[in-house]
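Example for tutorial group B:
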């Protein structure tokens, strides 16, 4: 992949300059990009490219052999070699960072207090769901989880991100919090997101710097998704 992924180093970066390496109505490849391509339940970023007085809206991102920014239908396409000013949709990215970190708090609390692993998850700005292999739902589970999550948020726990060699990363206890290991064998360096003192796991998404920046969590609903599986729906509020 020719694109240097800036968001992996600086999750607060919102604007930068880049050079177009390839472009068509199906996708635009930049030499540098902070657009998160999606993954781990977090949807891709949106934003704009500004060049020569023209604006191209970016409606999504596609990750394959290249990191391709998907232009809005009908928008102008810059030719290769063009220098562009790129900007993320700030409110959307910030909301997704808060929401993704909220899910990690939820994951840490449910694993610590109930020993359940994650079987799936998804999110949109300020709303998300996470599925757990939880055979039984104890009385008061919804309230207990919400209260515990908000206590961890109020504790203002630091959220650290680092990249470790695969062998070193997998020596960390419980580094995989999903029921199935989703890190391919081909991945030799593992990105770790650590809510210090609560939750440490392999993850490629974007996050806030501390739990206090999340706001508050409201557990909206607990659903039964079949034998031994429970879905927790949450909302992130100020």
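The residue assignment follows.
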């Amino acid at each position: 992949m020719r694109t240097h992924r800036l968001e992996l180093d600086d999750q607060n970066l919102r604007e930068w300059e880049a050079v177009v390496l390839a472009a068509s109505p199906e996708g635009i490849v930049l030499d540098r990009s902070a657009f998160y391509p999606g993954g781990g339940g977090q949807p891709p970023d949106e934003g704009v490219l500004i060049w020569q007085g023209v604006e191209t809206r970016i409606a999504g991102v596609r990750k394959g052999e290249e990191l391709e920014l998907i232009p809005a239908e009908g928008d102008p396409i810059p030719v290769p070699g063009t220098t562009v000013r790129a900007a993320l949709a700030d409110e959307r990215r910030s909301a997704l960072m808060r929401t993704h970190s909220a899910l990690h708090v939820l994951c840490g609390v449910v694993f610590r207090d109930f020993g359940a692993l994650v079987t799936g998850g998804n999110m949109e700005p300020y709303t998300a769901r996470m599925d757990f292999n939880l055979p039984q739902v104890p009385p008061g589970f919804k309230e207990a989880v919400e209260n515990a999550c908000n206590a961890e948020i109020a504790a203002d726990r630091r959220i650290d991100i680092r990249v470790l060699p695969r062998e070193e990363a997998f020596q960390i206890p419980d580094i995989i919090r999903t029921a199935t290991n989703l890190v391919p064998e081909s991945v030799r360096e593992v990105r770790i997101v650590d809510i210090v003192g609560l939750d440490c796991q392999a993850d490629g998404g974007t996050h806030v710097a501390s739990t206090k920046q999340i706001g508050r969590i409201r557990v909206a609903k607990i659903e039964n998704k079949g034998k031994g599986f429970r879905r927790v729906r949450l909302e992130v509020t100020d």
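The first strand starts at residue 4 and ends at 5. Compare this with the pattern of hydrophobic and polar residues in the output above.
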